[in-house]
Amino acid sequence: MGNDAKNKDGQSRTRNILPGTQFHRIRRTVQSICFVIFVLLPLFDVMRVDLPRQRFYFFGAELYINEFAIIFLTMMFVWILVAAGAMIYGRFWCGYLCPQMIFSEAADGLEKRINRMVNRKFSNLGPGARRALSVALFSAVLLPGSIFVTFVFVSYFVPPLDLFHRLLTIDMRTAAGITGASVTLVTVLDFAFLRTRFCTAICPYGYLQNMLADKHTLLVHFQEDSSGKCILCQKCVRACPMGIDIRRSSHQLECTHCAECIDACSEVLGKMGRGSMIHYAWGDVEQNFSGKNAWYRRMGLRDGKRVAILVLLLIYATGLSIAINLRQAVMVRVMPDRITLYTRGDDGLIHNRFRILASNRGKTDTKVTFSLAGLPAGRILGMDDGVALKPGETLQREFDIAADATQISPGINHMTIVAHVVPTQKDDVFAENFIAPMEGAPATAPAGKQQ
Ligand code: SF4
Ligand code: SF4
Fold first, then answer.
1. 234 Cβ partners below 8 Å, 6+ apart?
2. Same structural domain, 9 and 87
């Protein structure tokens, strides 16, 4: 391609143009990898929100929906990553990574192939019959394809095995079944009629990317140079999946920066011994074309906005990795039950009631045992065996702490409840109060009426 093209001053543009002429092949390779990732992410719980079980899976970590900090950091990290990507690499997502674009182009390619095959093999049929046959064959592939895409998409929110069972039983009664059927219908309509029109008519990300772009953002750029003028062959227009003419402007809303026009121009002008007049470029800043600017200047990496967003990305990535590392597989909460401040038991001791909430967010069986510190006269009742938890299990229990009133202070006694987790051997410590009656107080004291 035009890596050897010269600008008006005869200087090489080589350094500001990405290498490689066959962007189509690169794009197909990247899109195939993306498709595999799209399918594997939910199947192997790499990234998935499990709505029925209220879990969020993120690179092997099983997070509970109520683990707000981690989920918030993840969302912010992904959002800033997307914003930084759009600012630096422009519409790279649309052209190379977006599932909508991948499936739209696949549907386009499939339709063309079927049309060609029908026209070739059934040339004895009339145009109407050939058209009907093409539509029937295309629909026969589109429907199972759409069901598969929908299955993968819904798997991001419902466990795949559960979803597969619903699919086999043609579940149209539960919310998940109805959602699956509705999404399949939308997918069929999208790939049958909308395809890349979705990108310009509906998708908000395209608009957002254009807002985030600046003078250094990667774009596809047309420029006539000293090697000759455009021969007006229109091949770049015919090759464009969005049906636009890149020569009009590098900043057209429809342009996904897919580079099909670069390949088209390379092919035509290559036969004449010339390089493409369409290139990837870091913005349409004239100085960048000279190749004099260092790579970080061409990418605008000294620009305050870019530095800020990259620093922000680093901060959220660090925060997220710290939060995931500090996360405990077993979560224990201890809360006093202050419906009554204390009661006097049949054993003659003063009782305070507590409630525990324990969740096993790990992948192995676990057990939580409890001990008391700071209240020598006190003991925990009914929790000698601790609480056994299976993976994913959450339990709530109530228990009493009892103490002889004559061996503790009237009123508030500070103490510590220690939750010991086996097998992680981690301790959770809870500072709590044991409340004893004041002199001459009744046997039971409702909350707020302590004597
Ligand atoms: S103008 Fe070129 S880069 Fe833009 S969408 Fe069309 S083919 Fe892709
Ligand atoms: S393919 Fe190249 S030469 Fe042909 S019209 Fe497009 S820019 Fe001009």
1. none
2. yes
